[in-house]
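Morning!

This is the sequence you dropped in the shared folder:
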Amino acid sequence: MENRLVAVLEIGSTGVRLLVAQIQDDGQWTVMDNAGRPVALGRDVFNSGEFSRESLLECLTVLQNFKELLAGWGIAAADAHVIATSALRVARNRDMFIDRIRQETDFNLSVVDGVEENRLMYLGVRFALKQDLPLFWRANSMIIEVGGGSTEIMLLRRGQMVAAHSIKLGTIIIDQRTRLGAGPSLLYERYLGETIRNTTSLLNAEMDLAHVRTFVMVGSDARYVALQAGTELNEHCRVIDRKDFIAFAEKIRNYSVEECVQKLGITYAEAEGFIPGILVLKLFLDQTGAARVAVPLVSIREGYLIDMALGVDSDVQKEFYSQIIASAVNLGRRFHFDESHSRHVARLCMTLFDALEKVHGMNQRQRMMLETAAILHDIGAFIKASGHNRHGQYIVANSEIFGLPRDEQDIIANVIRYHRGDPPSEADIEYISLQREERILVLKMASILRVADALDRGHSQQIKDITIDRRAETIVLHAQGSYDISLELMGVEEKVGLFQDTFGYKIVLS
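The structure's back. Tokens below.
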């Protein structure tokens, strides 16, 4: 791969920002240019639910200017990577907005959901911290970014993902709520206090925030404080003592927008959401036991760039997949799943997947999706054992799993639905609503999961492992273990039908 110039353009709630970088053939990259312009898209959307004509025209003007800037770098608009976050996620007229941008600028815009935003943010944080903050990998950590329309939160236990959430709490929304009420006093004492109490109650059920030792703040507001009151950890990250951040927050909490501009030296557009953003960070920090705050000097744009530079086979990407599995395991624990059985079925699934790669033709990303489905296949038993596959489909479809975009989570939910019982039919709305290629994936994954689940029918791990012998029309599974496997033999006979219909091979357990 030759060195190449790439551009990442982000359309956010408060502005449009551009990053131009050169990616080297070894996966390293260098920032060549940075630019940003304020555009108040979020104020329209979070107030009326739609973009106004004026904000659309303002955004188009900024994008035309960036198109000219990119032309100077020799990058065509159609080749730029353009992403949008919370404002476009919720706008009723977003399809019109996206089409207008494409028609007038040639930029092809993609809207990232909250889970994908978390993933890109995590990549940026991981890159910035490196190994220079060992406590992040050894103890409990919290990563938070307060945007214009949402707050993104990740919880990690000893470097492993526990949960990821996208919360509808952003600086623009906070400002609008307090304008309707009693001003700053409501901001401090009621709205933020109540909202964050409700959120921390949810988070504490997943991980006790009092045990968080590393508090990572992402975003322009945190970066400003870090540059003013922090010290350098490395070229991509700064740290601030807890007491210094809290003192700064207390100092500015009653500033007006005008005072922020005059005393802090920031622009009016930056000042409008600055105090709400800092206060949200401070209130969450109050819930933790962190002595220091880490502030990566990166954004979602760097996360996107890192994702492009790494490639699918990198060690970082493999580590990222392990974080998705860790998040799935923690979701299972919330619903008291049979962890020994689920992990064992997942291992058997991976053995089948790897040995039958030429039969199913799925890739490594789909391998991770199958492993996630196997981990969570019995999660619905928390509601009721009877019909637990349907209950499991509902739980997974309505949960947040770190690193999984909505389309992949829908596939996994369908795999769980069909890991037992009748095969898919045209009456199943959730299945029929998938794309053709996605329905084929569901059939392939559910077929493999059914076989793996049958191999531990008694939930006692009688079959410790299997070896696989593929013949002309038959796949023979040789059980490793010295126990009675009569239940498993019966289970395989009952559950291999979908596999045989999907792949055309008979399954024999010996």
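Headline: The chain is about 55% helix and 20% strand.

More detail when I'm at my desk.
O.
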